[in-house]
Structures are given as C-alpha cells and as structure tokens.
Write a structure and sequence with these properties.
Order of helices and strands: HEHHHEEHHEHHEEHHH
Strand content: 15-25%
Number of helices: 11
Helix content: 55-70%
CATH topology: Outer membrane efflux proteins (OEP)
Number of domains: 1
Distance between the termini: 45 Å
CATH architecture: Up-down Bundle
Radius of gyration: 40 Å
Structural class: alpha+beta
Number of strands: 6
C-alpha cells in the first residue's frame, strides 16, 4: 500500500508540473526585472538623482521672488508746544501696501557652480550604476536559483530512480522469500533499504519546493508556491570562457570598479569646489516694486512709489580662520584615499577572478571525470543486478552497486551545478551577466 502511495504521489506531482506555463532562464530574469521590489525601489532612487542633475540645482540660474504686504496702524497722539498749548488727536489711521519682485543672480563664485553641476551629473551616473549593480545582482541570483532548481530536480530524479531500483529488488526478494529461497533477513534488509530510499525522495520533494519558492520570490510572483515549469531539465556549463577576455572586461565594465572611479571623481570635484573660495564672487540683484501709503493727518493724503532697484555685489573672503586651507588639505587626502580604495578594489577583483577561474577550470575537469564515472557505475549496476537475479550476488553487494550509481550521478550533478555557479560569478565580475538576456539562437530558429 505504501508503494502505491509513493508512486501515485509522484505521478500527481509530475502531472501538475507538466500542466504549468513554461519558463526559461531569460523569461525568469525578465519577469524579475519587471516585478522585483528591489529593482523598482532602486529605479525610483535613480529617478531622484536624475531629477537633481539640473543647472538650476547647481546654481547657474537666478532666483526670482515675489512679495507683497499690507500694514496699518491706529494711534492716539498728544503734542505739547513750548507755549503750553496741548493738541490731542485720537484714532489716527495710517496704512501701507507693498508689492514687488526681486531677482538675485550669482554670476561668478570661483567656479564653484561649475563644480557643483559636474558633481550632480556624477551623482546621476552613480545612480545609474547603482541601478545596474542591483540588476546584475538580481540576474545572478535568479540564474543561480534557476539552475539550483534544475539541480534539485535532477537529484529528485536520481533518488526516484534509486527508489525504483530498490522496489525491483524488494519484489525479487519477496518472490524468492515466498518460495523459500531467501531468508526473512534478506526480506527485511530489502524493505529497510526501500523505506530509506522512500524517505530520501520525500525529503528531496521538500528541497525542490523550497528552491521553487525562492525562485518565485526573486521574480516577485504573488503566488510563491506556483509550480512553474522550467524549459531546461539539464545544466550545460559553458566550457569556452576565456580568462584574458574576462579580466579585460572586468577592468572596463565591473560596476564596483566604475563606482570607485566615480568616487574618486567626486573627491576631485570637492577639491575644486573648496578652491572656489580662493576667488572673489560677483552677484547681481534687481527688483521692481510698488509702495502705497495712506495718511489721515498732514498735508498728504496718499503717497505712491513705483520703480526699479538694482545693484552689483563684489566680495572676497580675506580671512576665514584658515578654514579654506584646511578644507583643501582634507579634500586632497580624500582624493588619495579614493585612489587607494580603487587600487584595493582592483586587487580584490584580481583575487576573486583568479579564485573563480581556478574553481571553474577545476569543476570542468571534475565534470568530465564524473560523466565517465556515471557510465561506469551504470554498467557496474547492470552487471550486479543481472548477477543478483541469478542468485550470484548478495543483497548487500547489490546495495553497494546501487549506492555507487547514486553517488556517481550525484557527483556529476554537483560538478555541473558548481561549474555553472563559477560561470555566473565570472560573468558578474566581468560585467557580462546581462548576456543571459540575449536571445538563444537555437530558440529563435525554432
């Protein structure tokens, strides 16, 4: 009854997966780039830096302001003349209305405005690079999980195949036990092995579910339990990567290195802005205004003024407590630090590239060996099973051959997946991870 349950469960699982929509890696990545929350957030952040990179924000343009007001007063006055005459006036009301427009414009501030605008444009570029870095990280994560799901499904297939082999062995032992040619110990051992393999299959089903859920989460699919069906069922590592080309691409396209270069450029602009205080500044100002006054006493009842005002301001900071020199010294130190950080990052990238390339080549060699081992293990198990059917091999020896076949298939799968992970890391380091978005020519021809 248990065996029927396991078989039925696996058949239902396979049927439900087969009915789902097909996703290849390119489609998974495109779905993630469209829906992933981190991508949407970083794009909004980039939009802010894009909005800030304007000549107005840098200070190139004048500022224009409008103002208006109305004031009134009611006073009681008492005047005493020298001859002793006293004059009292109560409730004297006077009112004033003003309206005007003012323009202020900094024409020159020692090239500080130019430095600020250049800095805003660099910050815009940094926003674009941060978006690109987030996109590349997401592509690498989706690709890794996509192939991990394939790897776990392959392992499930291997464990299921092992379970089928154990089922066949149990069938043979049961038949021989009932005719008296095998002992109860052989039957119990076969049953234990079958139960152990069944448990491994059930545990692997959980691993597959977790991997599928992780992939759906990266793609921001609302139903994280959706059983997407992958177009690929095997992992094909790319054996044609070139270390020299990868390193050359890393030096020109690695996002972290480009950000380090931008950081150095920002430090240089900070120094330029600090130096701008060594120069005088020139500012223009002007305005047009209206003023109206209403009086209840005196010879004038109403007075109005309407006209322009303008001016030029030239200034220079003679002494500011040596702060300018301090700021410029600190800016030069920041330039040196940013250069050191760039060199440190370049060295770290060189080390990462070397380690990943070594792992890539090593796993390629392991992959070739493990493929040969699988062929040998399959032939070994075929011979062992034939001898077992003839009664020339014990159950323990058959189990060893069975485990050898499973281990060989597992090692081959691990070598394939590890090589693919190294490939993903190398492409990400070299800034070529977006190659996974390039259409597959084989698919295009279909």
């Amino acid at each position: 009854m248990k065996r029927l349950f396991y078989i039925g469960f696996l058949l239902i699982l396979t049927a439900s997966i087969g009915a789902q929509e097909v996703y290849n890696l390119k489609r998974c990545i495109e779905t993630g780039l469209e829906r992933n929350y981190a991508i949407r957030i970083i794009r909004n952040t980039q939009q802010i830096s894009d909005n800030n990179a304007t000549i107005g924000n840098a200070g190139y343009l004048p500022t224009v302001g409008m103002n208006g007001g109305f004031n009134g007063s009611i006073n009681n006055t008492r005047e005493e003349a020298k001859d002793g005459t006293v004059t009292k006036t109560n409730g004297i009301n006077s009112e004033t209305a003003t309206a005007g427009i003012d323009v202020n414009w900094t024409i020159f501030d020692g090239f500080g405005i130019q430095a600020e605008y250049a800095k805003l444009k660099e910050l815009k570029s940094i926003g674009e690079l941060n978006t690109r870095m987030t996109i590349e990280d997401l592509i690498a994560d989706i690709a890794s999980e996509y192939y991990n799901l394939i790897r776990q499904k392959i392992r499930l297939q291997n464990l299921t195949s092992t379970l089928n082999l154990s089922r066949e062995r149990l069938r043979i032992v049961e038949e021989r036990y009932y005719i008296g040619s095998m002992s109860r110990l052989d039957l119990q051992q076969a049953q234990v092995d079958f139960n152990s393999d069944s448990s491994a299959v059930l545990n692997q089903l959980e691993v597959v579910h977790r991997s599928r859920t992780a992939l759906n989460q990266l793609m921001s699919i609302d139903n994280v339990e959706e059983r997407i069906h992958q177009k690929d069922s095997t992992i094909y590592p790319n054996p044609f990567l070139d270390e020299v080309d990868l390193w050359s691409s890393t030096m020109s396209s690695n996002v972290s290195l480009l950000l380090a270069q931008k950081d150095q450029r920002l430090s240089e602009l900070d120094l330029k802005k600090a130096k701008s205080r060594n120069y005088p500044y020139l500012r223009l100002n002007g305005g047009y205004g209206y003023t109206g006054n209403w009086y209840e006493v005196g010879n004038t009842d109403f007075q109005r003024r309407l006209g322009f005002n303008y001016g030029v301001t030239v200034g220079f900071t003679v002494f500011d407590g040596l702060n300018r020199k301090r700021e410029q010294r600190n800016a030069r130190i920041q330039i040196e630090n940013s250069e050191l950080r760039r060199q440190e990052l370049e060295l770290a990238l060189r080390a990462d590239m070397s380690n990943q390339w070594m792992a890539y080549e090593n796993n390629l060699n392991l992959w070739a060996l493990e493929k040969e081992n699988v062929v040998a293990a399959q032939e070994n198990y075929r011979i062992a099973m034939e001898r077992y059917r003839l009664g020339q091999l014990s159950g323990i020896e058959l189990r060893e051959a069975q485990n050898s076949l499973l281990n060989a298939e597992e090692s081959k799968s691990i070598a394939e997946f590890s090589t693919k992970l190294c490939e993903i890391s190398l492409l990400q380091l070299s800034g070529q991870i977006t190659n996974y978005l390039i259409p597959d020519p084989n698919e295009a021809s279909q």
